[in-house]
């Protein structure tokens, strides 16, 4: 289940969202060659990734910020940039360019601190923008719970796009992070679930003053929980079922590493 778009494009160009996406992609491309040398990669991570044990020793604090612009693979950065693209523009439209930039950085730092608290002596380098983007999702949930988001549902050979309210999609996502956080040792490698949880909660908290300033529940009643823009209409709401083609030639079996 993947979100692929929302139905409420922003009312102005989201310069900060695009700049964050371009920066992340540029850094990823610029550091691609480091993967050819484990020693060089670890030295780079020791300087710029978030390593909780380093912070507990009193250094490596720059990693709270620099780690937000590093990614561990194509799927990692592709997923993060997709979520930022979907949820960032409306929040930037509501907060303003500067306000959104500061909000994004604050959520990322908050997510990093929660991760450090959850695994203070871990020496596993942590990278990725997902903590900050989780904050964007938390802010989106508070301001636009009724916005429609299209999710791509994949069931073996059936692909279907289903529109759901943002609150449902984000609640399922947050529940998955809680489940992962409770069932996974925080000092292990893999997904930093508590960073996601911390970023999401930080985004909710930081958005509360703006939500109250707009009227709180009255703001929801006035906007029906949707961004203040015309709803986009898409011609197709599903992808047809694909029949499996018959084999006409023998293809050798391979093993992926």
Describe this structure in a few short sentences.
Helix content is 54%, strand content 8%.
Structural description of this entry:
It is a single chain. With 257 residues, this protein is mainly α. It has one domain: Rhomboid-like fold, CATH 1.20.1540.10. It contains ten helices and three strands, in the order βαααααααββααα. The longest helix is centred in the N-terminal third of the chain and has 22 residues, at 74-95. Mean pLDDT is 87; it is low at 237-257. It is found in: Membrane. Residues 61-208 form the Peptidase S54 rhomboid domain. It is a multi-pass membrane protein. Its main location: membrane.
H and E string: EHHHHHHHEEHHH
**How would you describe the shape?**
globular
SSE class? mainly alpha
CATH level-two architecture: Up-down Bundle
Fraction in helix: 40-55%
User: Any idea of the CATH class?
Assistant: Mainly Alpha
How far the N terminus sits from the C terminus, by CA atoms, comes to 25 Å
The count of strands amounts to 3
Beta percentage is 5-15%
Radius of gyration, in angstroms, nearest whole number = 20 Å
Major β-sheet, in short? 3 strands, antiparallel
Low-confidence runs of at least 5 consecutive residues: 237-257
Query: Would you give the CATH topology?
Result: Rhomboid-like fold
Into how many domains do the coordinates divide?
1
Mean pLDDT across the residues is 87
The CATH superfamily appears as Rhomboid-like
Total helical elements: 10
Strand order of the largest sheet: 1-2-3
InterPro entries: Peptidase_S54_rhomboid_dom, Rhomboid-like_sf
GO cellular component, one term: membrane
Domain Peptidase S54 rhomboid: 61-208
EC number: 3.4.21.-
């Amino acid at each position: 289940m993947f979100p692929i778009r929302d139905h409420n494009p922003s009312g102005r160009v989201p310069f900060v969202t695009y700049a964050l996406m371009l920066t992340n992609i540029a850094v990823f491309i610029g550091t691609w060659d480091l993967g050819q040398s484990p020693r060089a990669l670890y030295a780079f991570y020791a300087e710029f990734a978030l390593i909780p044990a380093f912070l507990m020793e009193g250094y490596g604090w720059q990693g709270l910020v620099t780690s937000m612009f590093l990614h561990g693979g194509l799927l990692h950065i592709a997923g993060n940039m997709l979520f930022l693209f979907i949820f960032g523009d409306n929040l930037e439209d509501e907060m303003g360019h500067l306000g959104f930039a500061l909000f994004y950085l604050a959520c990322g730092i908050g997510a990093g601190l929660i991760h450090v608290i959850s695994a203070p002596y871990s020496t596993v380098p942590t990278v990725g923008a997902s903590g900050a983007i989780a904050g964007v999702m938390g802010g989106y949930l508070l301001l636009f719970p009724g916005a429609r988001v299209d999710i791509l549902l994949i069931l073996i050979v059936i692909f279907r796009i289903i529109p759901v309210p943002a609150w449902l999609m984000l609640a399922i996502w947050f529940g998955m992070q809680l489940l992962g956080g409770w069932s996974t040792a925080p000092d292990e490698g893999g997904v930093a679930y508590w960073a996601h949880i911390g970023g999401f909660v930080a985004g909710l908290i930081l958005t509360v003053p703006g939500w109250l300033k707009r009227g709180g529940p009255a703001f929801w009643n006035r906007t029906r929980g949707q961004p203040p823009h015309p709803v986009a209409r898409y011609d197709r709401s599903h992808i047809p079922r694909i029949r499996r083609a018959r084999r006409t030639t023998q293809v050798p079996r391979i093993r992926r590493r």
